[in-house]
Every structure is written in structure tokens, then in C-alpha cells.
Amino acid sequence: xxxxxxxxxxxxxxxxxxxxxxxxxxxxxxxxxxxxxxxxxxxxxxxxxxxxxxxxxxxxxxxxxxxxxxxxxxxxxxxxxxxxxxxxxxxxxxxxxxxxxxxxxxxxxxxxxxxxxxxxxxxxxxxxxxxxxxxxxxxxxxxxxxxxxxxxxxxxxxxxxxxxxxxxxxxxxxxxxxxxxxxxxxxxxxxxxxxxxxxxxxxxxxxxxxxxxxxxxxxxxxxxxxxxxxxxxxxxxxxxxxxxxxxxxxxxxxxxxxxxxxxxxxxxxxxxxxxxxxxxxxxxxxxxxxxxxxxxxxxxxxxxxxxxxxxxxxxxxxxxxxxxxxxxxxxxxxxxxxxxxxxxxxxxxxxxxxxxxxxxxxxxxxxxxxxxxxxxxxxxxxxxxxxxxxxxxxxxxxxxxxxxxxxxxxxxxxxxxxxxxxxxxxxxxxxxxxxxxxxxxxxxxxxxxxxxxxx
Length: 455
Prior knowledge:
mainly alpha; about 0% strand
């Protein structure tokens, strides 16, 4: 059975077997993110800027879906490790109910406040088309977001029982559908109307809906460790609290990224819309480096959570050590690429001479933060898997709100646009210090006592 696999299989083999499928699927997702923006950029720089200013809201939806999934995943995996089958089933089905509630909430949020959200970032924009494109995009992805939330929930359920290969299938199919539909709907190919930015949004939600349907099918057919039946397992306040005791810190942690993006967009728009477009292009490019690590973490979390429930401290330590090693290696490669071919990377977004002038030094400077980011990402996932999601939240607040944004505003005043980018490496150094301290704290409190028990 899968539970024996997570508790017995050699860690290096287990981590690779559970992570590689997710890393591949996340690479496909990252490829979609880049391809999506490449097509949008062909409409014009205003379209790329519009998608960039819509990103904080889009990221907020992802934060809620992913954070809820993290909490559900940790609760389900821990319950399975403790042989509490009924509790695992209840947690899984409550996660599905929470996905539906998230969709309803964001539909109303975008309908009521979408225009205000876009206009608050475009008040200094010289091109009014940016606001028009941005509102089109955000309304579509928000009001048809049920695909996003259910897709993420069903993927996490597959991951919680170690079936990462099936989770990879759902992600890859959704991403491939997005990539295929993007040029068709954006430019009006094969008889379809030319929808431009709205077409990119429709392609995105279509891929999400289809992936969600496939995820539901796979959970009901192959995920035999869990019984998926939301009508049988009604919402339970006790279980919802348990899910969100881990999930809310993760949600806030990712939501902070939305706040940071919102603040950076406003700051950069004060320089020029091109600077905002550069920042948007950077976020798409860095996803190609970060996504594989997130995929690895999706494989790491259930291993750590299961072995914590099974009281096997040595396996927890080995899993985290290997994850940090792999993540750091990936980040070093990313840093090298951003230094060697920054112009080529930006050229994929139809970059103008002005965009290259701003973007090349920006990519080189920001990429220094990659050298410590791998450790930070793995540490945050470790905290979540061990039930200390609040520590992840604290580090994220320090990195993005206490250090990065204030530093960016100060550096903008002191050194202009080029100085702004140094706020990213500065924030990562400070976050790494706190991550080290918190990892030692969790080890002393949770893992070392388990080692004592076994003596």
C-alpha cells in the first residue's frame, strides 16, 4: 500500500518518485505561463502590462486554492499515517466543499470590486487601453474560477496519497489545452473571433475546467485510499478548523505576494508602464525556475507529514536535506541563465529597446536572490508539513512586506529605477536568516523528541 511506501522506501528514491512527476507538470505549467504572455505581448506592450496588473488578483485566487489544498493535504496525509481512515475521508471531502465556497467568494469579489482594483493601479498609466484589457482579463478569470479551485483541490488529494503521476496528468492536460487555445482565441484563428486579452483569459479558464473534471474522475476511480463523496461527508467546522490551522498561514503567505505585486506595480507605474511590463515578464520567467521547486515540495510535504504521523524523525530530516540540495541546485542554474541570456529571455516577450534597457539589468540583479530562495521555499513547506504554517507566514511577511516593499520605495527615491531591483536580494538574505532560526526551533521542538523516544 502507498502508506508503506512513504514510510519504508529509501528517501532519495521516494522523493524522486513522488516529486519528478509534479516537477514535470509544474514545468509544463511554467511553460504555459511564458507562452501565454508571449502571445499577449504580440498584441502590444499595453496588453502585457494589463495582464501584469491583473496578476495580484489572479495570484490571490491561487493562494486561497493552494493554501486550502496544503492544509487539506497535510491533514489527510497525517491521518493516513496515523491509520485514521474516516478522518482522512472527512478532511478530503471538506476540502472539496471549501473549493466551492472559494469560487463563490471570488466571483462576487471580482464582480463588485474588479474595476476599482484595476483603476487603482492604472491611475498613472499613459495608455487607457491598459485598464480596459486588465478589467476584461480579471472578470473572466474571477467569475469562471470554479475550474481553478476544484482543479487544485483534486490535484492535492491525489498528492496526499502519493499518486503524483495522476496529479501530473491533470496539470499537464490543463496547461496544454491553454497553450493550444491561446493563439486561437487571442488572434481569432480557424474562424474564431479575435478576442485579444479576453481570449487569453478564456483559454486559461477552459484549461482549468477540463483539468478539474479529469481530476474528479481520477480521484473517484484510482484514489482508493480516499472515499470522495461530498454529499455523504457534509461540512464539519472541526475539520475546517484543522485544515485552515495549516492552510490559512499558507494562504496569507501567498497572498502577501499579491500585496507585494500590487505595491510594486504602483511603484513601477510611477516610472513607466514599460517598467511594469518588465516586472510582469520577470514573474513569468522566474516561474520556469521556481515551479519545479514547488512541484518538488508538493512531493515532499506528504512524505514529511506521513513520517511525522508515523513518528520516524530520521526520514523527515533526510527528506528535507535532499529537498534543500535539489532546490538550491535548480536555483543556481536559474541565476546563471538570468545572467548569461537576459536579452534573449526578454526578447520572447517582443521587448522594445526601452524594455531591454530596463529589463536586462533588472533580471541580473533580481537573480542574485535565487541563490537563497531555494532554501527558503523548502523551509516554508517543511513548516507547513509539520503543522507550523504560522512560521512560513512570518518569514513571508518579513520578506515581502517588512523588507522588500519598503526597501523598494526607499531605493526608488535614493537611486532611481535600477536601484529598486536590489530590494529582492536584500529581502531574501534577511528571510534566510529567520528561516534558519525557525528550522532549528521546529527541529528541537518536534523532531528531536521523536529521536529520544526511539532510544
